[in-house]
Write the structure tokens for this entry.
Amino acid sequence: MGEAGDRFASAAVARLATAGPDSRPHIVPVTFAVDGDAIYSAVDAKPKTTADLRRLRNIAAEPRAAVLTDHYEVDWDRLWWARADGTGPSSQDTPAAHTPSGSRARASSGRS
């Protein structure tokens, strides 16, 4: 998986970035699991104001998405981020609600 992928997979939380049909960006924190090149983030049963989530509508309309993890410390030599870009059709028939996956979901990283 490499250093970027290892760092990405070790993170407890990520930010999912999507864009709607109007190209307006939308970013939300998500928990996730990594399986090979696939990233899974479920929409759980916690109470929400609506089941019609913007992130799911965005992915249905524009499947390109990015998932970003990062680590911050006061010592800037220890800062890092890792991002996976991919496509993720909303899959309400499976446990994964959005799945940026496939060969295009390889993590890239950098120092902040």
The chain has one domain: 2-110. Residues 2-110 form a domain with the Pnp Oxidase; Chain A fold (CATH 2.30.110.10). Confidence is low (pLDDT under 50) at residues 93-108. The CA atoms of residues 40 and 99 lie 5 Å apart.
